[in-house]
Amino acid sequence: MRLAATLLILCLASAPPGHSANNHPLKTTTWKNLCDVYAAFKDRMAGTKLAQQSHRKLSLDMGLQQTRTQILHQSTSDAQARRRFAVLAFYLSFEAAAARKHTEGKTEPAFWNNLEKAGQLLGQIKEFLTIAAGPRQTSTNGCITTNDGSETTGLKQGLTELGQAHGGCKALIGHTPDGLADSDVIDNQGLKKYASEASAQTSAAETGCKLLTLADNNGYVAGTSLGAGVEVAGGILKITPTTTNEQKLNDLAANPGAGSKAATAESWKGFSSPRGASSGLR
């Protein structure tokens, strides 16, 4: 009896994992939305860096002009010219101080803090999509589809294929996104494309999709016990024992929430409005 039980256990352990509730690829809108969030944040971060560099350059230029004006003020004996140089030097000192204000004190730490928080969100999104579009085993297809109604056609592998399939995904491989403006994704209330807790999975199961499976087969979530679920992609998606949903994130200003949503809200807060010259991806 013990031998039979042992053989049964060994057979079950060696059997390939079958379909489970979460063996479904991501919907097309789901992975495209993730790419768009990545691209929009990356663009606004670049705009903020450019604005900060501009403030530093302006502060330096104004300081140099002030020094030159003070030298001219001291080197002339003409009373009228001295008055003009004195007024100009005062004006330049005011402009230099205004520009410098953006690069020191509370502003500079906030600048780096905002970049760090947004960088963490982007890293988690890219990690998730890298795994979702990652290497496949023999006789499997994968977790990224451009055809929500089929498990055998339209499945993509690798970030390069994602970039070819959707303009926003080009940002994942360091290319310039197209067909997208950051204002399509981010506004002063939250992330516009996440208006409800929508289903993130297709209706067609796929045996090789290891990302959302609950079987212990080296997927993003290993094991079969998730309890209330686990948040992934920076908290934008939530995997539960029965489904995977996009989170509601268009209300971050009024409802920043807790946990991963709160972290997403902190990332959004620093880039809720365009900064500097970069405000679009088209």
TrEMBL record:
The keyword Amino-acid biosynthesis does not apply. It is found in: Cell membrane. The keyword Signal applies. Residues 1-20 form the signal peptide. It is a lipid-anchor; GPI-anchor. One of its GO terms (cellular component) is plasma membrane. Keywords: Cell membrane, Glycoprotein, GPI-anchor, Lipoprotein, Membrane, Signal. GO terms for biological process: symbiont-mediated evasion of host immune response. It comes from the Eukaryota. Transmembrane segments: none annotated. Residues 6-274 form the Trypanosome variant surface glycoprotein A-type N-terminal domain. Residues 251-282 are annotated as: Disordered. This is Variant surface glycoprotein 1819. It comes from Trypanosoma brucei.
